[in-house]
Fold this protein.
Amino acid sequence: MRLVLFDCDGTLVDSAALIHEVMARTFVQFGHPRPDVSKTKSIIGLTLDIAIARMQGKLHVDDEAIAMTAHYRSIYMDVRHEPGMDVPLFAGIKPMIDRLAAREDILIGAVTGKSRRGLVNVLETHGFTPHFIVSRTADDCPSKPHPAMVTECCDEAGMKAADAIVIGDAIYDMQMAKAAGARAIGVSWGYASIDELIGAGADIIAYHPNDVLDHF
């Protein structure tokens, strides 16, 4: 048996446009310039308060970052329902998940910096809820690259970390996997570069969801 743990934003769904718009409006609300989209993409995967602090060059989460986090969350769903703010699956993701879910030797889970509500929304929207037997979110664990998301999912599923594979698009996903003792597959269609993923510990790079299937 193997436990396959997917990141969400940038791995399953293309949410960069939505995340950036909500982040940009939050920065403006607090009197800061709109951040560049590249800066927003660089923090996708981190827990929100840490992400905001890092975008501002802060070493720690302060009161302003906490207030900005609350504002971000308060406007997220309204922005999510605006025209052009869809969060589509990347091409090939649905058939990949369906094929993995059909196998008796594979269990599927999620490890994400999204909130629990955000993850549930994605899984329900795309019909993935029955396939994901375990998950950890920003509401449950310390931010990536801390290994807790992986180790807690392994414990819940009755699996060893050595039998788990983390699949993600961010350096934080690769670092988290290595810290937990799991394998790491970096995906090229997300928000980090291939060189960054390899440098962060990716065991292999998937250039298409079919490459993930070939790995198994």
